[in-house]
Amino acid sequence: MTLAMRVPIFLLRLLALGAAVTATVIMISARDTAQVFNMSFEAKYTNSPTFKYFVIINAIASGYSLIVLFCPSKTSLLRFLLVLDMIVTLLLDSSISACLAIGQVGKNGNAHTGWLPICNQVPKFCDHVTGALIAGFVASLAYFVILLCSLHNIFNLSTLKP
């Protein structure tokens, strides 16, 4: 792989690392309390398995990004990294999709099932979740571009071989 392709991929991996770490930290720090009918309740990410999944996947993506930044860029590792990049991209996409669904219910509720919106009572929590989802989306987008660049590199290397 040429230096002209290594530098953008390195920068994209740094961006993905920063975004995934940011999404993890923001979601973990998401916490707010509210009083409803003289009862106090606390909204935090551990209340929802979906938010836990989001945190775990972003932590895995952060660790993977950190490890790959220090891996040598040998042609024998490119295909293995391509597969791992695809897995991380798909995991990030699935965690964001699940969180968006829960966030939609939290923001608007669901009249058919009787679920009430909670973002009016805990706006700080909802703002943190929104910020974490934006950072997670940036990480996912960066990994998607990394995946496209890796595919391009592998197909160029395979066509160069006799």
From TrEMBL:
One Gene Ontology cellular component annotation held by this UniProt entry: plasma membrane
Domain Casparian strip membrane protein, chain residue ranges per copy: 7-141
What InterPro entries does the record tag this protein with? CASP/CASPL (IPR006459), CASP_dom (IPR006702), CASPL (IPR044173)
User: Where is it localised?
Assistant: Cell membrane
Keywords assigned by UniProt, alphabetized = Cell membrane, Membrane, Transmembrane, Transmembrane helix
* Keyword Transmembrane helix (UniProt): yes
Claim: Membrane is one of the keywords in the record: yes
Pfam families linked: CASP_dom (PF04535)
Q: How does it sit in the membrane?
A: Multi-pass membrane protein
Q: Which residues cross the membrane?
A: 12-30, 50-70, 82-103, 132-155
Q: Which domain of life is it from?
A: Eukaryota
Predominant location:
membrane
Q: How the protein assembles, per its UniProt entry?
A: Homodimer and heterodimers.
Q: Which family does this protein fall into? A: Belongs to the Casparian strip membrane proteins (CASP) family.
- What name appears for this protein in its UniProt entry? CASP-like protein
